Amino acid sequence: MNMVYKTNRLWSDRLIPEIRNIVGGQLLQVAPDDLDQHNATDLLMLDARDVRVAARVRRPGYAARYPHQFTVRSRVPSGAETELSKIVNGHGDWMFYGHANLAQTAIESWKLIDLNAFRAGLIRLGTQKLLWGNKTNADGTRFTWFDTRSFPAHPPLVIASSEYSL
Question: Which of 90, 134, 143, 162 has the highest CB neighbour count under 10 A?
Fold first, then answer.
């Protein structure tokens, strides 16, 4: 296993319990009165099928500098398939995109991105009309950034965030 991957994975996995709490809260809705009164149902799942969630957490300092952007890994030195390729190929339903706090112990801010809306935006607008770019790190890993404001309003790209929720 690649040491850089392992180090990054160990760092981000520390925040998985908090990510689960945030995303899990978006999957449940308060049941309508009829279901509550007649079917012993107070809460229901947003979607009855499995929802596959990619999770990306940035280190401190990026949330304030790039509040409307999210990044997706688009090249690794090994040539392995990247998150962007997997997403474009139809994998994943949502992406949790968070920023760690200064102490790197909790999530400072977050967005929940609908990957179907992301793919729809790529298809409808193409890369000519979306605001995006590439950033290559010193280790040869490349990330592609996208500005959430450049995506169509419908279907909504950001389905929940630390600023607002469903």
Answer: 143
